[in-house]
Design a protein that fits this description.
Blueprint lengths: L16 E5 L3 H12 L3 E5 L5 H8 L3 E4 L11 E6 L4 H14 L2 E4 L12 E5 L2 E5 L5 H17 L13 E6 L10 H9 L2 E4 L16 E4 L7 H17 L3 E6 L9 H10 L4 E4 L4 H8 L13 E5 L13 H6 L3 E5 L5 H10 L7 E6 L7 E6 L3 H7 L6 E5 L2 H5 L1 H4 L9 E2 L5
Parallel strand pairs: 1-2, 1-4, 2-3, 4-5, 8-11, 8-12, 9-10, 9-11, 13-14
Antiparallel strand pairs: 6-7, 14-17, 15-16, 15-17, 16-18
Helix pairs in contact: 6-7, 10-11
Bound molecules: S-adenosylmethionine.
S-adenosylmethionine binds next to helix 8 and strand 17.
Length: 422
């Protein structure tokens, strides 16, 4: 068996009984793929991992709570022998051979009648890589192919015909790896990409030469007019038969005016879909190492826009109510108004010593965090020349992340630069 390469074949297991002998971590790794293929999975093992037990309780998997017996193979199409006892795996393998059922062995690929390939999926394709039982190599080749497909370097000549419409893609906080797989794929399949200033622009460099990029950061100023122009542009392009990706920073529905674009599309009868993105008020503190909740410290967080100063007639924020909250505050677009906002929060009773982190350019090469307190934040934003984009994190979670600074054990990382990934 060993001298010949395996013959690749795609098993269609939907509704067919597959026996998994063993309930440990190897079995646990194999079961999700079998379930995704629609197989009727039966696990035979005296014990199973908590994850498999969860699948049993959810009714996804049948568990026969004992050791293997030859009759378990009845009505079975495919077997995985995955116990940690080679004698049991051998017994399963021999019984399967007699019954002419293909059998994978976790311990001895050389005597198995089937091997599990390294698999990947891309846009309806299933990729399977088989070697001569070299799991690291096959996984590396699989990863390289799947990555190339995502990056478009392999997909270039097999692009699906474009479907007219608009896809709103949230690009995440800025680092090109923090976009979703679906978002990246949509970019690769676009006829035209309409990109915002805060969208992860490095990704635009990977687009095919035939994809048009419209940089709306360069449209004339005046917010309402600019937004109307964008609405018109995406609708017109979609009506002319193009697939438009509207590419934004973070998530399109978090201070991203995404729904205005949806409404414009709907009014014009243009098909529109949304691919969510990692929104900066959660993603930016995370990459800077600051948890927005922490057991015993903060059980709620509130995201607030600070683009209008407190008291501004158009502001919809009740700053007095916000100041009475005790959980974490995540202030967006608040650099310019940091001082006025802090004054309001203090007046509403928030402790002047409340720890504050101002995280600028989160996940991007110039990322830096200024650590301060609520009473000092206005002055520190000026002193450290903080420029947008920044997330201002207010609350004791900042001290959880930086105990040396706030615990009086001397300075550690105030005003630090921490590019992501570090
Ligand atoms: C117009 S809002 C867009 C928010 C975006 N839709 C989201 O979900 O993250 C822009 C604000 O998001 C925040 N922001 C976005 N990206 C950021 C980043 N990489 N670092 C820090 N703040 C960021 C800043 O507060 C910035 O002023």
């Amino acid at each position: 068996m060993e001298d010949h390469p395996p013959y690749p074949s795609g098993l269609r297991l939907a509704g067919r009984r597959v026996l998994v002998v063993g309930g440990g971590h190897v079995a646990q790794r194999r079961i999700p793929g079998l379930l995704a293929a629609g197989a009727e999975v039966v696990v035979v093992s005296p014990s199973v991992t908590p994850a498999i037990e969860g699948q049993v309780l959810a009714g996804e998997v049948t568990w026969v709570e004992r050791g293997f017996a030859d009759e378990d193979l009845a009505a079975t199409w495919y077997v995985i022998a995955a116990t940690n006892d080679p004698a049991v795996n051998e017994q399963v393998s021999q019984a399967a051979e007699l019954a002419r059922i293909f059998c994978v062995r976790s311990d001895d690929g050389a005597s198995a009648t089937a091997w599990t390939p390294a698999t990947g999926r891309y846009d309806g394709l299933t990729l399977a890589v088989l070697g001569r039982r070299e799991p690291r190599r096959t996984a590396a080749v699989r990863d390289a192919i799947v990555n190339a497909l995502h990056e478009g370097t392999v997909a270039a000549d097999v692009r699906r015909p474009s479907v007219p419409g608009v896809t709103l893609v949230g690009g995440g906080p800025g680092h090109p790896e923090l976009i979703s797989v679906a978002g990246r794929r949509a970019l690769m399949e676009a006829d035209v990409v309409v990109a915002d200033r805060l969208a992860p622009r490095e990704l635009l460099g990977d687009l095919s030469a035939t994809t048009e990029v419209v940089d709306v950061a360069k449209l004339p100023r005046g917010r309402a007019a600019a937004q109307e122009g964008i609405n018109r542009l995406i609708v017109e392009r979609a009506l002319s038969g193009q697939h438009v990706v509207r590419f934004k920073g973070g998530d399109s529905f978090v201070f991203g005016r995404g729904f205005e674009e949806i409404e414009a599309c709907r009014e014009a009868g243009v098909a529109v879909r949304v691919i969510p993105g990692l929104s900066s008020p959660l993603a930016v503190p995370a990459v800077a190492g600051i948890p927005v909740t922490h057991r015993g410290v903060a059980h709620d967080f509130t995201v607030v826009s600070g683009h209008l100063p407190p008291g501004h007639p158009d502001s919809l924020v009740d700053w007095d109510a916000v100041g009475r909250l005790r959980g974490t505050l995540l202030l967006m677009m608040a650099v310019e108004n940091a001082s006025a906002i802090a004054t309001c929060l203090l007046a509403a009773g928030r402790d002047p010593a409340t720890p504050v982190a101002v995280v600028c350019d989160g996940s991007m090469p110039g990322e830096r965090t200024v650590l301060t307190t609520l009473v000092e934040v206005g002055a520190d934003v000026g002193r450290h020349a903080v420029r947008p984009p920044a997330i201002i994190v207010v609350g004791d979670v900042v001290a959880v992340a930086h105990p040396n600074v706030y615990g009086g054990r001397g300075p550690d990382e105030a005003s630090v630069s921490r590019p992501w990934p570090s």
